Amino acid sequence: MNYVEKAVCLRRALHKIPELGWGEFCTTAKIIENLEPLGWKLYVGRQQISEEAVMGRSEEFVQKSIERALSEGVDKALIERMEGYTGCVAEFDTGRPGPVTALRFDIDCVGVEETDRKDHLPNLEGFRSQHEGAMHSCGHDGHTAVGLSVAQWIMDHKDELNGRIKLIFQPAEEGVRGGAAQAASGLLDDVNYLLGAHLAMMCKTGEVCIYPGGVLCTTKLDVRLKGKPAHPTMSPQLGRNALACACTIVSELLGMARHGNGLGCINVGLMQAGECRNVIPVHASIQLEVRGETAEINDFMVDQANRIVKGTALAYDVEYEVEKVGEAGELLNDPELADLVKEVSEKVPSCRKVIDHKKLGCSEDFTMLAARVRAVGGKTEFFVIGADRTAAHHQREFDFDEKGLETAFDIFTGCLRRLNGK
Amino acid sequence: MNYVEKAVCLRRALHKIPELGWGEFCTTAKIIENLEPLGWKLYVGRQQISEEAVMGRSEEFVQKSIERALSEGVDKALIERMEGYTGCVAEFDTGRPGPVTALRFDIDCVGVEETDRKDHLPNLEGFRSQHEGAMHSCGHDGHTAVGLSVAQWIMDHKDELNGRIKLIFQPAEEGVRGGAAQAASGLLDDVNYLLGAHLAMMCKTGEVCIYPGGVLCTTKLDVRLKGKPAHPTMSPQLGRNALACACTIVSELLGMARHGNGLGCINVGLMQAGECRNVIPVHASIQLEVRGETAEINDFMVDQANRIVKGTALAYDVEYEVEKVGEAGELLNDPELADLVKEVSEKVPSCRKVIDHKKLGCSEDFTMLAARVRAVGGKTEFFVIGADRTAAHHQREFDFDEKGLETAFDIFTGCLRRLNGK
Amino acid sequence: MNYVEKAVCLRRALHKIPELGWGEFCTTAKIIENLEPLGWKLYVGRQQISEEAVMGRSEEFVQKSIERALSEGVDKALIERMEGYTGCVAEFDTGRPGPVTALRFDIDCVGVEETDRKDHLPNLEGFRSQHEGAMHSCGHDGHTAVGLSVAQWIMDHKDELNGRIKLIFQPAEEGVRGGAAQAASGLLDDVNYLLGAHLAMMCKTGEVCIYPGGVLCTTKLDVRLKGKPAHPTMSPQLGRNALACACTIVSELLGMARHGNGLGCINVGLMQAGECRNVIPVHASIQLEVRGETAEINDFMVDQANRIVKGTALAYDVEYEVEKVGEAGELLNDPELADLVKEVSEKVPSCRKVIDHKKLGCSEDFTMLAARVRAVGGKTEFFVIGADRTAAHHQREFDFDEKGLETAFDIFTGCLRRLNGK
Amino acid sequence: MNYVEKAVCLRRALHKIPELGWGEFCTTAKIIENLEPLGWKLYVGRQQISEEAVMGRSEEFVQKSIERALSEGVDKALIERMEGYTGCVAEFDTGRPGPVTALRFDIDCVGVEETDRKDHLPNLEGFRSQHEGAMHSCGHDGHTAVGLSVAQWIMDHKDELNGRIKLIFQPAEEGVRGGAAQAASGLLDDVNYLLGAHLAMMCKTGEVCIYPGGVLCTTKLDVRLKGKPAHPTMSPQLGRNALACACTIVSELLGMARHGNGLGCINVGLMQAGECRNVIPVHASIQLEVRGETAEINDFMVDQANRIVKGTALAYDVEYEVEKVGEAGELLNDPELADLVKEVSEKVPSCRKVIDHKKLGCSEDFTMLAARVRAVGGKTEFFVIGADRTAAHHQREFDFDEKGLETAFDIFTGCLRRLNGK
Q1: Known Gene3D superfamilies for this protein (chains A, B, C, D) (predicted)?
Q2: Structural domains of chain A in order of their starting residue, each with its CATH number
């Protein structure tokens, strides 16, 4: 079984056990179990996650995920090693001087129930999600599989390589929650080159896009309000209406000033407020996100959101809390490294067409890792590896053409040969 | 065991099996099983409920309630007889000319988990609620028990009575949902006198209040909005934002015009909106109530609410639905009948003090039954029978002094002697 | 010419020169010119107005009013004596021991253009307003005229009186602006009895109402917001939108919590915002009033309004200013003094009917003077002296039956005889 | 005096008599008086303005403007000929076959008071605005002057030209109000080439920009609401609150959905609402504009605005009116004609630099004329002729380098030679 066949195999195995962000215990176990025998040095648990920088992680959800992992036979010692924090960083030192190159693979899934359509490949071939309400409908199973396959290739070719190589298996990319915490671990602070890629997106099988555009900065915020209950007829003056406050906040948020320098967006996606019909509502919570074409714009939106919540809570005399539960920055590819990926891609057999620019319209917390690397002088590049898909990302009918795995494997290893080859 | 002892017994039995409105299958079964052997003619199911006038009833909840009733041993034949509609009207014809007098007892409970404090009487005496999250914390167990006790007294004294007597066991008083449907059955259209009472409220043991004030008209509305999903950055123009619409509706509702002729209130108690953070929200629902000192004021508030929802849905291009899920009218006691209750009360041994007016600050769908009776020329009276209580109504520590049952029994039977006595 | 004929004469003369609050220079001059020759000790200008407590007074308007007064021939020395502050307090000391009784008459007019209907008495009899856009359509011309007539009566009967008598000619009652400043002068701090009355209102000729109801506490607020301009397309991020902030404030104000203890109202009557279509709006101003059945309720509304403005200004990052431009309190009549007015009224020939209670639905800053008097132990009473009217108060067709002047004169002098008679 | 000297002269004369849109009676008279003697065929008044398509024109303002024009000595016969509609289209037929070429010059000014700084050229040279509150601070005086100078050149060179030439002197460009009405006159329906230009903008003296970017589509809307008055305490139920409705409309407008395909903006620049503090507000008016990168986006914003007003007026039960008072479309230059302008410009002595693309960030109703021409198969081009400026456009210190007039004259005549030369 060659590397690509192995990647397909691994992708299908991972597809069966999709796990939502911060709950990837089975997945992380599988990564460890693959890498450790190969001789990779592993950073696990808090070694690779800075707790203070963790966003959008619920202890209750983590416990449930651990329980499920244990019930599915994951080794208890492995779970303990993870210390409640999923993801893993693997390092290999050739012992020879040379650059530090890092490859990043995200590992989590999406909260979608996989389709039961018979013609859906995972159903045809028997690798449908075995976790209810969870599905790899964003292709991260493919990313992880490629990472593991590349890991083996590296060990098989270690005598042909210089410097050091790091493989970043990042948790909780959905909701852009995990990147910041892994970046804050410091494990990337010695990296010279950081590469990452996404499968499919707007590119077809055989296409590679070097400068994906429209990758927006974003911040995800949860707002919680707490007022005071009262009987709305007998003593409304004793109440502090969290629901009314939340509604005004929403109106203000949607009408916030935009920025003249580029696209800025806001969405309030969820609101829950109140206890029952005949009590002045005490609790309200809203989930929102802002996005911006640049960090400046995104920050401008975040600042406004914070000010709106603070001021309006004061107007209604309710307590408030704003929690940042996700964050991604600008995608700034280094031209030199981008050129290298372009050159490598052009020689990859399965790559038919290299596209310079293509608009995606999404956010990626690869940017959080990349910002850390750039901050210490490293170069970063994030590209898209085309793969035909059966439905849009995050849809329950989503599947991608596994030929993309070959393209990915070839580009990553090709780059390693160029960057770390003897 | 005398009548009052029996009422206490029944009350405690009923207290153990509290059922929320439209789900009172155990309770209705108990009523039927008590009355039928005594010779009462019973109207059950759709005989006593007009389906078109039913408010705030969910088929799913009804099915669950039926299943629980069956699992608790309620006779399947009885359940079938109820046709999915709880409550019951019992009629006795003396065969002699005379007025038709109706007594109304409400039978449902409140969605509150009963306290586990040891000094709480139901805990001490072992009649705590056996239904999780449900509790007779409004005293309707007492009302029903008195009704059943009075039913027996009537049969025991049937030779001393003239005319006809109807006992109205009304479902779903909480949320003022059941009165209108029972009224619309037409079973009260021949009633000359309608009496109803509430235990405790603002009155202490030994007190009776003849003209409870501050009983407000009210209408409960559920609003449901449906927009269209869209990616908030890629194609926000395709979305129709139900959450934003709901927030504007709430702001408009709270700011609606009040009425110069008296008190008008509005509360939006609950809101749920949106699906996830990064999709333009598709669904929103809000639960609200308006109240008015008079029907004119209440109607004015309802009209505004409907107009606000309709117009604002148009402004946001979302679909809307307004459902009336509860309604109660003005409490208009007939002076002549009120005088009679007063005279009777003054002679009741356990009654220490008859109070003419006392403000309650609540709503009662007795008023829906009363309106029907008044419409055909009958007279109606709703009074309060005092009973010390351990906590406010609807609190989980609520309990009432069972001496109030005696007062209630004596007044109801006293009135029957006056109105239907030979 | 008897006192009442003189009052009619004076009323018509005053009707020709109506002046809006804080601009009553002609009116004040007329009062001074009437009283001084009679021997009254006069407090003028800052002697009777505490500058810090002045509300709703614009220096620009005052200057224009002074210019007009001068142009109409008012003595320049008199104007200088007024120091820019209209109104006047007159005091007479009998030299004999006895109580201090104060009578209050308000002197300002309404900003309404008087009708030109031919059958309107002021047109028929030639005493139509000579001041464009200003009219005594609230009857204060009558109040002032009665005050002057009573002043003469007092001097004519000074040997029959004991104690001291004060006549309070109050400016700026409309908008309830002047009472507080005159009260704060301290001139009422020795008053034992304070009487005031309003002509017409809901009472017909011959009626007197002793306890006018529905006289609400009120506070008038002006809100001014200041943001920052910006081009709405090129650089909206530089703007701070005062118009948007004002709109949110209005929504919040109208939806503020009401009070369970009684009527509380809010009205935002005026808003002006923005500079031109294509600039982010910099300025916004709104004029609002709250009212409350009690001081507690009114204060609750005011507190909310202040909090709403403060918090929302913060949310929008705009500067704000809230100015109190008017204030009136609860009308609390002293039963003993009310009884005296009632007894006196019953003997007045032109009084056909004494009414105890009647709802007015207005506000009166007599209450500000009364609060000061009550604070030092004095007793106060405000009553209504009926007079048929041709249109509602503040309408341009308003006129009142001058027979009310006789009733008023007789009641005031009758009370003086009772309170200060030898 | 050569053509350019004449243009400078004319520009200064026009600068002294700036007139706001639809009030350019002096200006139009001056144009007529210049062109008619030269032999141009003139279309005046309704000949060149389609009344139904007129936007943002107030009859009252027009009358005042006419009165001023008459008072300043404009010939009454000329005024009558204008029929209340300013602007003018001049046509010259060479009698020889050839294309129809139209040049467009806008003639109105801005509502700004000209600076009194001594170093401001119009002050130094004595051609400061003589109309209070009005100023040519957008350079349209220069446009008109160039047009008149070109008109003379055409007549001086008529034997060297073929086809027909039309000069479009357009009123009311500010607020993008006049273009649509002049287009609807049909006078451009036979035009093969339409050229227009703006002085200064972001380009310096000597620069010419062929494809100005960021010229946004826009629609200007006036919204008027009418409610019903009521006393806010006595009978609020009778009121219909136009102010409250306007505030909700503003919140909804600012929060309207944006478009995924490009920039869309909204600004509510002005709001006036209410009559006085203590009456439920009856009237409210707001002035707003939307802009869009494309017509699709602009239309999407306009549709939302209309829907928001309609729905919210319904919610508040107030009457509404939405008037379109200005409109401009996408700037779509024809590449062939643009190339011609580019070539001509490159040969113009005063032109140092031809710029292909430069972002302006404004709107232009040249686009309305251009759309008409394109609709019948004509080609259009709008370019920018650089000129140093002393302040931003629409500022009171604005002035432009008159050397730009030479560049403009040379380009326009150069293009005519190319398009209509023998």
Answers
A1: Zn peptidases
A2: 3-213+331-420 (3.40.630.10), 228-317 (3.30.70.360)
